[in-house]
Each structure stands twice: as structure tokens, then as C-alpha cells.
Amino acid sequence: MSLEVEAVHRSGVVVARLRGELDHHTSDAVRTKVDALLEETGSIRLLWNLSDLSFMDSSGLGVLLGRYRRISQGGGKMACCGLTAPVRKLLELSGVLRIVPVYEDESSGIAALREA
């Protein structure tokens, strides 16, 4: 299975939309693309739209947590939206949902991050 990643800058927020499986085969590409857009835009707000993500392993968790650390150290905020059941379960078990807010959809996530 492959992964498609689209990273866009909307209303001061970098939005990373993932489709497919985020694992050790695809994590480097996601990290590189999201980091490049964060660097290019200077944004300190990041929203992961995971509504089309069917699978994530520990490599994917590493990508999310690494971006969380980077964003937090810069005084910014990170959130997720559109969690599928398997991804939600992984994020709950790993404790990520205790530190990263989750929103129903991309619009509400962007609005919340803009107010933060």
C-alpha cells in the first residue's frame, strides 16, 4: 500500500492530508514534505487531516510526535482531525490524544488553531 501526502498552507495553518498507510516505508517522505512546508511558510500551526489514513505504525507515530515537539518548542500548536477507527485506537493507546487535540473535520481544526 502506498501513501499520498498533500501539504498545503491555509489561513496560517499548514494542513497535512494523508491518504493510505503511514509506515516505515512512507514516513520519511511525509516528514520531509511537512517539514519543508513548515520551513517555507514559517507557520507554527500544523493540522493533520487523517480522514483517509487507513493504517499507521510506530514510524508514523514518530513523525507526528517529532512534528509536535518541533511545533511546541516554537510556541505553536498541532492538532489532528478526521481520525479513522484504527488510527484513533493507536493514538489513544500511545497517549498522543492526551497532548494533541482532535477535531471533527479540517475546517473546525483550522479555526481552532487560528484562535490558539
Set down the secondary structure blueprint.
Elements: E1 3-10, E2 13-22, H1 27-41, E3 45-56, H2 58-73, E4 77-81, H3 85-94, E5 102-103, H4 106-115
CATH topology: Transcription Regulator spoIIAA
Spatial shape: globular
Domain count: the total is 1
Order of helices and strands: EEHEHEHEH
Helix fraction, binned, reads: 40-55%
**For the record, what CATH class applies?**
Alpha Beta
CATH homologous superfamily label: STAS domain
Number of helices: 4
Using only CA atoms, what is the Rg? 13 Å
- Mean pLDDT over the residues: 95
Numbering strands along the chain, what is their spatial order in the largest sheet? Answer: 1-2-3-4-5
**What is the number of E strands?**
5
> Which CATH-level-2 architecture?
2-Layer Sandwich
Instruction: Estimate what percentage of residues fall within beta strands.
Output: 25-35%
Largest sheet: 5 strands, mixed
Category by helix and strand content: alpha/beta
- Taking the alpha carbons of the first and last residues, their distance comes to 36 Å
Low-confidence stretches: none
Characteristic key phrases:
single chain; 116 residues; alpha/beta; Transcription Regulator spoIIAA; 4 helices
What's the gist of this structure?
With 116 residues, the chain is of the alpha/beta class. It contains four helices and five strands; from the N terminus they run E-E-H-E-H-E-H-E-H. The chain has a five-stranded mixed β-sheet, with helices on both faces.
